[in-house]
Amino acid sequence: MGTCPTLSAMGALLWFRDDLRVQDNLALLAACESAEEVVAVYLLDEHSPEIRPLGGASKWWLHHSLKALHAELRALGIQLIFRTGAAREAIPALAKEVQASAVFWNRRYGASRAIDADIKQHLHHEGIQASSFPGHLLFEPWNIANKQGDPYKVFTPFWRACREQPAPAYPKDAPDPLGGTPSDFPTASLDQILPLPTWPHEFAQHWQPGAAGAYEALEDFLDHTIDEYADGRDVPALGHTSKLSPHLRFGEISPREVWHAVAEHPAHDSEGARVFLSELGWREFAWHTLYRHPDLATRGLDRRFDAMVWEHDPEGLTLWQQGKTGFGLVDAGLRELWRTGTMHNRVRMAAASLLVKNMMIDWRLGEQWFWDTLLDADEASNPFNWQWVAGCGADASPYFRIFNPETQQKKFDANGKYVNRWAPDWMAHTPVVDLRESRARALTAFDAIKGLPR
């Protein structure tokens, strides 16, 4: 019977989460600098209550991203192990199994950071070093506050405060390969822990998960789109977006890399560059908000909305999910989402507004659908943006701002190119609501909670 492999006395365990890259990965660098041998792990944790189980689209992306990361790490002489389980038990157990003297990871900022704190304490008690590093954000949440020391609730002063900070650290290169061959610890297979969902038939036609796809998307954006970004980003048929959001969501590229690539581009002073960096700022604002409000996906920041009476309309919700609302722009967006795993941001706002403010369906049901079907759905931006549309979030759209999907279609898809591509039959469907009547009903409902304490 063979003996179980172990690391050398100076071995390290590297724990990957939403940082699936070898470039600008501070935890990876620290592990390689401090240890003679490194073994990496990706733990699929669907057991810890602080972890929100991934949606189907995210699982498709993660499967392919981990496959790419596995190859990149192997080229560095590092084995990537796949495991499942609750992190509080699984990570310390794995550290003991491989006899690691240190464990490294990059920080998380939602409710799951409580898990990390518990694990760090447990490891220290066992005499194992545990070190965490920044990597998912441009600025750490505890460093951005107003003059009273409180977090910002409005984006503009928040982003101004961020821009007054020293520039984000310059990205680090990947470490040099370690000597020797990768270790050979027992591991589950990727197909075992993350079987591919059956419905994303077209995803691979539109996306390349992994760091190589991230850098290709960034290069394409800087070469062809950044100059037109400010004016073209709201027109869905143009496709003038960076296509970086799922890559950032899984950490295949760091926000620092994106920031400095834009800063060093000849168009760095253009309106397109300014607007694009402000979109990175909105991502930052969402994560800083989640840091202060870990229940962002389940409760509105404006507590008056706890008293909102939502419609129970399973049939209407299904029509919305299937892109059969009878409103062309919304239907096109929801069908684009199902087929490609993404939806243009302008269309997301129109689709969300129709569901929440015209159909009066709870924003959390729409958020859950996006969580399951969007490739870029993360635990901060997805609920943050739904709360923004609903009117109950940080710097939210006022409750009386109700997007008219017909007006939005005329303004941003006047020639029908986008709608005809994704929902050519939209006029065959009876509108799910009368826009004028449903607007009046929504305003009445919002007026009913207006006087309640926030």
From TrEMBL:
Protein residues bound to FAD: Y229, T241, S242, K243, L244, S245, F276, D376, A377, D378
GO molecular function per UniProt: deoxyribodipyrimidine photo-lyase activity; DNA binding; FAD binding
Protein name in the entry: Deoxyribodipyrimidine photo-lyase
Site entry: Electron transfer via tryptophanyl radical: W310, W363, W386
PROSITE patterns per record: PHR_CRY_ALPHA_BETA
Keyword tRNA-binding among UniProt keywords: no
Record organism: Corynebacterium pseudopelargi
InterPro entries reported in the protein's UniProt record: Crypto/Photolyase_FAD-like_sf (IPR036134), Crypto/Photolyase_N_sf (IPR036155), Cryptochr/Photolyase_FAD-bd (IPR005101), Cryptochrome/DNA_photolyase_1 (IPR002081), DNA_photolyase_N (IPR006050), Rossmann-like_a/b/a_fold (IPR014729)
Known cofactor(s): FAD
Family membership: Belongs to the DNA photolyase family.
Start and end residues of each Photolyase/cryptochrome alpha/beta domain: 10-138
Cofactor binding description: Binds 1 FAD per subunit.
Bilayer-spanning residue ranges: none
Signal sequence range: none
Root EC class: lyase
EC numbers: 4.1.99.3
Pfam families per record: DNA_photolyase, FAD_binding_7
Domain of life: Bacteria
Keywords in alphabetical order: Chromophore, FAD, Flavoprotein, Lyase
GO biological process, one term: response to light stimulus
